[in-house]
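At this stage, I put together one protein's amino acid sequence and its C-alpha cells, which the following lines show:
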Amino acid sequence: MSRRLLGRFLRLFFVLFGGFFGVLAVIGPPVPSAWAEDGRSAVTGFWAGEESILEVTLVDDGLSATVFALTNPVYRPDEQAGPAGNLRLDDRNDDEALRERPVLGLELLSGYRFEDGHWQGNIYDPKTGNTYRSRMWVDRNGRLKMRGYLGLPMLGRTVEYVPLSDCPPQVPAMLAFVDEIPPSAASCGE
C-alpha cells in the first residue's frame, strides 16, 4: 500500500472512529456492575428464567445452582407423571433411586470449576433427565447465560436468565409457592 493511500485511509479512519475511541479512552466502555466484578462471583445470586428461578452460590472452589422456584411446582390435573397437586419430582432421572426427589431444591451442577475466564462443568436438566457439559457466564447486559452441550460447545443450546431483581412478569406467580422471598425480589408483584 502506498504511503499516500495509507495516509488517506488513516485520516478517514480517525474521522469516522476517532471520536468514539477518544470517549472510550476517557470514560471507559459501558460495563454493568455484574460484568465488572470478578468473573467468579458475577454468576452468583437469584436468576429468573421462563419457567424457573435459580439460586447460584459459590461452594468452596466450585459452583452450586439449585432450583429455587418453578412456574408449575406441582403436577396439574392433565399431567400423567404424578398426582395432581403433588410436588413435581425428578421423575425422568436415569437413576431410579433419584426419581422420588422433588425438583424444588434440586442441585443442577456437578464438577463446576472456574477455568479460562468462565465457569464450566456438568449441568443436569430435570425436564429430560439428561446431564450435559456446560458453561456459565454473565454477559455484558448483566444476563446469566448457561450453555449446555454434548461434545463441542457449538453443538449446544444457551438458556438466558435475568437477575431476579428485574422482576420479569412470570416471577410473582413463581414466588407464590415460596416460603421465604429473597430480598432481591421483595418489590416483585407490588
Remarks:
- The beta strands are 45-48, 52-59, 62-70, 109-115, 118-125, 130-138, 144-149, 156-163.
- DSSP finds three helices and eight strands in the chain.
- Residues 37-180 form a domain with the Lipocalin fold (CATH 2.40.128.520).
- The mean pLDDT is 81.
